[in-house]
Design brief:
The protein is an alpha/beta fold. The protein has 14 helices and 14 strands. The chain has two domains: about 140 residues, Aspartate Aminotransferase, domain 1, CATH 3.90.1150; about 260 residues, 3-Layer(aba) Sandwich (Aspartate Aminotransferase, domain 2). The structure holds pyridoxal-5'-phosphate.
């Protein structure tokens, strides 16, 4: 019998292209949510899920966190969109500058793709150089200049050591690829070789400092430090895309966790408890090219008062309560990770579980480690799809490619419930 979700999907397909509002939500049966609270969400047919997707990461404090709801509703009554200056944006910017080691000056946008776009333009405008180095498997949003080689067909991507830039969509200007150099992740020698060859043309090296869009890959020891040194030597900028990792893996993001300070960084997702806001942050020197008007940066909704109210509440909480937020968040994630490893061993499934805890990845693979896109692509992704489908049927919602996001609201009982469901799904694989 058709469900309420089936009816809604049929209705949506008549008026929304593909029936979904983001390609990331495409599925045979997309999830239609009725409401969500804490670590749980309910679909339109009344089924309850333990949620490890959390809106693709933003709901670090759980869904409908009271402090976010209060801040948002108080601000809505004072005006929703000013497109003018207001006190909250200075508060949030000050908080960012005190929490994030790379932040001396800030500009706000609405979503992650925009903040990354700002970083790329600023890098080119500030250095006067055309080229950007990015890494296979890294996602930096859906805009043309960076939507290359995220999860390319390996046959098209060619040699693992010298990958070809593979476009992510029809409609990208072909010349974008001329100024993009795609390299393997976690391979410092590859970056050194390119910078030796044409470093004076490279405006920036951009990466997810802890890669969360292709598994969950902590960079090899010395990799980030090496990138920092090489980019400095060649006068190129280092850009960290912290849209997922920011405020999730540590109060100051992966830059703080891993001890490397980039020239520019982009933050989004977790910084406002589910409200849409992003921030481009960086050194006073580089951000100076926006400050003095050399590099354009704009947006009607930038520093949107309601989003700023949410960001102010969330960042103040994370900053002031850091000792009671991050250690339990990490240990809850790590307990879940350990339990999944034990269950997989018991059921004889080669499940590799990796990540810092507040976010982590399950891979089905015989490989001892996944360190870059090619080792990610070598995992059994069909088995992962079955694992995801089994969990989903059992009321456990994870990102289909095997990524898990934790919130401060996931309880020990919910972790136990998840492990019991995972054990049974693994046994059926
Ligand atoms: C690392 C990274 N950068 C940029 C983006 C783009 O952010 P948004 O979807 O808010 O535009 C994402 C989105 O998932 C991301 O994971």
């Amino acid at each position: 019998m058709p469900t309420q979700a089936d009816h809604l999907y049929a209705r949506a397909k008549k008026v929304i292209a593909g029936g979904v509002s983001s390609d990331a939500r495409r599925a045979d049966k997309p999830l239609f949510v009725d409401h969500a609270r804490g670590a749980e969400l309910w679909d339109v047919d009344g089924k309850r899920y333990l949620d490890y997707v959390l809106g693709q990461g933003p709901n670090l404090l759980g869904h409908a966190a009271p402090l976010v709801a209060d801040a948002v509703s108080a601000q809505v009554r004072r005006g929703v969109a000013y497109a003018a200056q207001h006190e909250l944006e200075a508060e949030v910017a000050e908080r960012l500058c005190s929490m994030v080691p790379a932040a001396e000056l800030v500009r706000f946008n609405s979503v992650g793709s925009e903040a990354v776009h700002g970083a790329i333009r600023l890098a080119r405008g500030h250095t006067g150089r055309p080229k950007i180095v990015k890494f296979e498997g890294n996602y930096h949003g859906w805009l043309d200049p960076v939507l290359y080689s995220v999860h390319p067909d390996v046959a098209l991507a060619g040699d693992a050591k010298h990958p070809t830039a593979v476009g992510g969509t029809a409609g990208q200007p072909r010349h974008d690829a001329d100024d993009l150099i795609v390299l393997p992740y976690n391979d410092l020698a590859a970056v050194a070789a390119v910078l030796d060859r044409c470093g004076d043309e490279v405006a920036a090296v951009i990466l997810e400092p802890l890669l969360c869009n292709t598994g969950c890959i902590t960079p090899s020891p010395g990799y980030l430090e090496g990138l920092r040194e090489l980019t400095r030597q060649h006068g190129s900028l280092l850009i960290f895309d912290e849209i997922i990792t920011g405020f999730r893996v540590a109060p100051g993001g992966a830059g703080e966790l891993l001890g490397v300070v980039p020239d520019l960084a982009a933050f989004g997702k977790a910084m406002a408890g589910g409200m849409q806001v992003s921030a481009l942050v960086g050194s006073a020197e580089v951000m100076g090219s926006i400050a003095d008007g050399k590099v354009a940066h704009a947006g009607t909704f930038n520093s949107h008062p309601v989003a700023m109210a949410a960001a102010d509440a969330v960042l103040t909480y994370l900053d002031e309560k850091r000792a009671s937020v991050y250690p339990p968040l990490t240990s809850t994630g790590q307990r879940l990770m350990a339990g999944l490893r034990t269950a997989a061993e018991r059921q004889g499934v080669p499940l590799l579980v990796d990540g810092p805890g507040p976010v982590f990845q399950t891979y089905i693979t015989d490989q001892a480690a996944v360190t870059d896109y090619r080792s990610f692509a070598a995992c059994d992704r069909a088995a992962m799809a079955r694992f995801h489908a089994g969990l989903f049927a059992a009321g456990i919602n994870i990102v289909p490619r095997g990524l898990w996001f934790l919130s401060t609201e996931h309880t020990a009982d919910q972790v136990d419930e998840t492990l019991a469901a995972a054990d049974s799904v693994l046994s059926s694989l």
